[in-house]
Amino acid sequence: MNNKTILVLVGIFVVAAVVGLTLMGKSGEKAAPTSTAVPTATSTAPGGGAGKEVSLLGSGSTFVKPAMDMWISDFTAKNPGIAIEYTGGGSGKGVKDILNHLVDFAGSDPPLPRNKWEKYKGQILQFPVVLGAVAIVYNIPEIGNTQLNLTGEVIAKIYLGEIVYWDDPAIKELNPGVADKLPHKEIIAVHRSDSSGTTQIFTTFLAKTCKEWEDKVGIGKTVRWPVDKTGRGIGQEGNQGVTQAVKTTPYSIGYVELAYALRYGLPYARLQNPAGKFVAPSPETVSAAFAINNPPSPLDDWSSVAREFVYSSASPDAYPLAGQTFLIVWKKWDDPAKCNAMKAFIEYIGSQGQENLPEGYAPLPEQLKKVVSQAAQLLECGG
C-alpha cells in the first residue's frame, strides 16, 4: 500500500468520526448544550414559581431609604427569585403612587391623613416599619463638631426668619460654653422642596413647641417657608439634597434623618423635650418616644397616634423629634406570586429586618413588631 492510498483511508476515517460525533450530539443524552442564555432565577419565597422571578416596586420616604436599601439587599440575597426596587422620591410621591396603583408598596413617614384613610378604609394597610430621628444639622466653621443645645421655639424662629444671626442672644443663652465663638453670620435655613414626610414630622415639632409657627405656618408635607422671603432659605429635594446643601454651605442649618448626618459627618443638636431635658438622638432616646401599649391595627387610622410620637411625653429621656416610616400596601392582590413575595418581605422587615438596620435607626418595640406581623397575615392573595 503506497503513501497516497494511506492518506485517502485516513481521511475517510476522520470524516466518519466527525459525522458520528455530530449524530451523538443530536440524539444522545450527553450532548453539550448550544444555548448561551442565563437561566431565570428560581424564587425561594412563597408564591415564586420555578424559573420565574417576582418583581416588587416601591417608592416614597427618603427618611427610610438607607434602611430599605439594606433590607432589600439582604432579603433578595436570601430570596433570589424576588427582585425589589425602591425609588424614594418623598412620602408624598409614595402615597400618590400607591393610591394610583403605580407601585406595589409605598413608604410614608406620616400615615395616611384621616380623610384619606376613611376613603380607603378596609382596602389598604398601613403600619410602622422603622423608628428614626430627624436631626437638626448645621455648618458653623468656628465651632466645628460642637453639639449645640436648641429648642423648638428657637428653631421655629430661625425658619420664620426672625432669628437672623448665629450669635443671636437666644442661641447664646442656650450654649454658654461656646457663646463667644458663635459668629455674627446670617443663618441659611435649608428645607425640603418636595412633598416630604420628614417635613411633616419637623413642622409637627415646630407647631407643638411654638404657637407662632402653628398659627402662621402649620403642619404639612409641604409648607410656605417664611424664611424664603428673606432670601436666607434654600429648598432641596430629599434628605440627601438637604444634607449636601448643609455640608457645602457655611452657616447653614437643616433637618435630615439621623442616618444622613452620621454618614456625612455633620454635627447635630441636642433638643429640649417636654421634660425640659436637652436630648441627643440615639436608638435608646428614639425608642423612648414610642412607648405604646395598645397600638392600632394595620387597618386602623394612625394619624393621631403618630402625632403623639413627636415631642413625646412617654419618657423624660425621649428625643423630641423622633419619627417613623409607615409601609402602605393594598390588602387584596390579584397576583398570588407577588402577594406572597410581599408577605414574605413584610415578615422579614418585622423580624430579621429589625436586627439589620444602618446606624441612625432604632428597632421597633415588640408591640409594633406584632403590628407588622399582623399586616403580613392580613394580605389576601387572590388569583
TrEMBL record:
Residues passing through the membrane, by range: 6-25
Stretches assigned to the PBP domain: 50-350
Keyword Transport: yes
Region (Disordered) residue spans: 29-49
CDD domains: PBP2_PstS
Keywords: Membrane, Phosphate transport, Transmembrane, Transmembrane helix, Transport
This protein's record includes keyword Hydrolase: no
Start-end of Low complexity biased regions: 31-45
Pfam families on file: PBP_like_2
PANTHER family per UniProt: PHOSPHATE-BINDING PROTEIN PSTS (PTHR42996)
Record-stated family: Belongs to the PstS family.
Protein known as: Phosphate-binding protein
